Fold this protein.
Amino acid sequence: MFRHTGAKLLLLLVVVALTGGGAALVLSGHGGQPARTPPVSAGSPTPDPSRPPLLASLPSSSTVPTAAGLQRVLAAGFRDPRLGAPPAFSIVDVESGQVLLSGRPGVGVVPASTAKIATAVAVLSATDPGQRLATTVLAGPAPGDVVLVGGGDPTLAGPRAPAAAFGPARLADLARQVRAGLGATVVKRVLVDDSLFTGPLTGPEWKPDYVGSGDVARVMALSVDGGRVQPGQAPRVADPALAAGRALASMLRTSAAVAVSVGRGRAAPGAAQLGVVLSPRIPVLVEQMLERSDNDLAEALSRQVALARGLPPSFAGGAQAVAAVLAELAVPGVSGGVDLQDGSGLSRNDRVRPAAVAALLVRAASSERLRPLLTGLPVAGFDGTLAERFRSPATLPAAGIVRAKTGTLEGVSALAGLVRTRDGRLLAFDLTADGVALGATWGAEAALDALAAALASCGCS
């Protein structure tokens, strides 16, 4: 991160430039770190008139790039050998929706994590903006039993998790409520109920080492710290739900001499509620998913789309629900262009046309409901998965000007987002290189950054 006063001012200026005055990020007073939209109380949020949709602030007199102009400044970048082969791409003028330039337009490519853009659009469209994910504790079937019920919140923070600005629910708060509700009753057994989600725990065509390497946890409706062995570290536990139960048990144990067993089970119908904690609102979770490229959040949010549509909260149900919501939105260029098997983009079976991703970004630019998609996109050179990119002499001028979702799988590097050109025109783009050589990911990322930087510096008339 840039941590000097001059860099703070630069961040403020470039964000205002990108958003046309309705800055999507604000500066905090902590080390130059940009602060994202803070969590708010439950209920539908009131639109903030100081943050109009990006489309409303576009200067109508700005020059629209031409296909010939774009081709002239991008041609060399498209031939960059670090990409392995010419990328599939789509560049769209946000104000008019006009496709300005495209490459391999009819081809569905493996999107990697740019698939999360589709997941974000679907969950923001299908759920209430005030919805939160509840983790509850109910009285168990026998005296001394409690049942920890997962509501699908992978951001639930354990006792060792540091404070987080986006305000996740905390297991310690839940434990305090339970102790108060039980009074003198001694907890002897914690049962975990992770039955909200159904189906396989890992996605179709996920690499076997995704869980072992820490890219994602086994998808369960109950977990603490994203199923990690330690907060902030990659390795995941074998059973996130049971690990959450053990964490709660340790917090409810009255003395070292009293053993608290942990297993699976359910509460009886009508069981008394002993405690509940709520996640941040879904729009805030969407921002977190996009900024950090959080695979666990993506899968959880995909299942929320399924639940909203009365479908099984599984990989298959989530994929079906996301497809149905996108079809109902009737965004030009999206029909037939998004075929996902999971919510995160980890599946090698996912196929997306770059034109569809660009079209979803265009829709988000004119939709207050979809604004968290835009505010969640990492800012080039400043935060999220772009914090350490756009640092070379060729790309540094685009730092803060580009907001984009990254995507990386073996053989695939992608970048999709928004950029304001030198003439002030806002463009949506998706650049997906699907022929990247083994071990060449960093080079491919640098090549994609150079293409995005060329768009930022482009007059292209």
